[in-house]
Design a protein that fits this description.
Helix content: over 70%
Largest sheet: none
Number of helices: 6
Shape: globular
Number of strands: 0
Radius of gyration: 17 Å
Distance between the termini: 27 Å
Length: 176
């Protein structure tokens, strides 16, 4: 990218639109998973809290291996891998209801979110001029916050209208 120019439309679509959808799904999942396990009776309040902590544990655990894989496979492949893991986790949320299965899905979701975030930031840093990088990353952060704002609202609406399983299947489709 050339300093002083706006990001290209392909960059806007490939990163900003995908970031909005991925963040929307993260906001949806972070609201709905504890409610889902409590509603289904598969976990106590403590279990629901522990389940939520696993998303961040997955993100934390995957960061160093993801950074090494990023060097080997590149930004685009790793972004796709992160989104695929998030989609698989969302499909698991829709299809499985045992606490153990949901625990593994949440860990997988954390892995995917961590990989996606790291690869996306790497891609944006490499594909932006140093003089524009701060502005581009600030816009990316704003897009992410917008998705995290819309996700719980949309998720609440979808669960109320269609139930948990359908909502998680919609989340699977959004993150692919």
């Amino acid at each position: 990218m050339i300093a002083g120019r706006l990001p290209s439309l392909s960059l806007l679509f490939s990163i900003y639109a995908t970031s909005l959808l991925a963040s929307l799904v993260q906001g949806l999942v972070l609201l709905l998973i504890p409610l889902y396990v409590l509603d289904s009776g598969s976990a106590s309040w403590l279990g629901a809290g522990a389940l939520m902590a696993l998303k961040n544990a997955g993100t934390l655990v995957v960061n160093i291996p993801a950074g090494l894989a990023l060097v080997r496979f590149g930004d685009k492949i790793m972004m796709a891998a992160g989104l695929l893991l998030m989609a698989l986790a969302c499909a698991g949320f829709a299809l499985l209801n045992s606490f153990i299965a949901l625990t593994l899905c949440m860990l997988l979701f954390g892995f995917g979110a961590g990989i996606w975030t790291l690869a996306r930031l790497s891609f944006m840093s490499v594909n932006s001029a140093p003089g524009q990088r701060g502005r581009i990353l600030a816009l990316l952060a704003g897009v992410q916050r917008t998705g995290m704002f819309i996700g719980p609202l949309g998720g609440g609406f979808l669960v109320q209208a269609y139930g948990f399983q359908t909502t998680f299947l919609v989340a699977t489709g959004l993150v692919i």
